[in-house]
UniProtKB/TrEMBL annotation:
Protein known as: Secreted protein
Protein's UniProt keywords contain Signal: yes
Domain of life: Bacteria
Organism in which the protein naturally occurs: Streptomyces graminofaciens
Assigned keywords, A-Z: Signal
Keyword Signal included in the entry's annotation: yes
Secretion signal, residue range per the UniProt entry: 1-37
Length: 211
């Protein structure tokens, strides 16, 4: 009977008060991130490894893959009526990159930490910059244009960062960066890469410009 009695207006008042409290709490939660607006960005945190008392990368996964196709070297034109050979010299540099867009170089401590962690965890050599230089001779059909297409062998690791400071850094001693990914040249598995010789018929504009 007591439960039945609470179905009157007092219950409605309680529900209304509860609803207002929930709305107020919800508004507070939505506004909360503004309090941290002055905090460091993830990129700033990564750079701050230089001054941290402890900076560690905890790898969670690793994989090799083929990078996007791109042209290397110059474009060659065959204006003759027979298939001709053309030599194309090319140089292609692959640099490491990460999801935070922070330059990967010896200037930043995180670069060395990441490299050592990946090599220890997965027994793969890590290079932040790698350059390949080659010279190839390709056969180009009559009235055609030829070029060299390359897909670079690459590797990528994903994990999270733990960064500690002796003195508070933006009001905290410990910071974390999650879902961090970095890619680079795959020296240990060059089979992921390829070099293809390509050609196609020249357009009328190309014939006019090169022949």
């Amino acid at each position: 009977m007591a439960l039945a009695h609470r179905r009157n207006g007092s219950t409605r008042r309680l529900r209304t008060a509860g609803t207002l409290a929930a709305l107020t709490m919800g508004a507070s939660l939505l506004a909360a991130p503004q309090a941290f607006a002055a905090g460091p960005s993830q990129a700033e945190l990564l750079k701050a490894c230089n001054q941290a008392s402890f900076c560690a990368f905890h790898p969670q996964s690793y994989w090799g893959y083929t990078g996007p196709k791109h042209q290397v070297g110059s474009t060659a034109y065959n204006c003759g009526n027979n298939t001709n050979q053309h030599r194309i010299d090319w140089s292609d540099t692959t640099t490491a990159g990460n999801t935070l867009g922070v330059s990967v170089s010896a200037t930043y401590k995180f670069s060395l930490v990441f490299e050592a962690s990946v090599e220890t965890s997965y027994s793969h050599t890590w290079e932040n910059s790698h350059t390949d230089t080659e010279s190839n001779t390709i056969n180009i059909s009559p009235r055609s244009v030829g070029w060299i297409e390359r897909g670079t062998a690459k590797q990528q690791a994903k994990g999270w960062w733990e960064i500690q400071f002796k003195n508070k850094y933006y009001d905290h001693y410990v910071w974390y960066i999650y879902d961090f990914q970095q890619s680079g040249f795959n020296k240990d598995n060059p089979g992921y890469g390829y070099v293809n010789f390509k050609d196609r018929k020249m357009t009328s504009a190309e014939i006019g410009a090169h022949c």
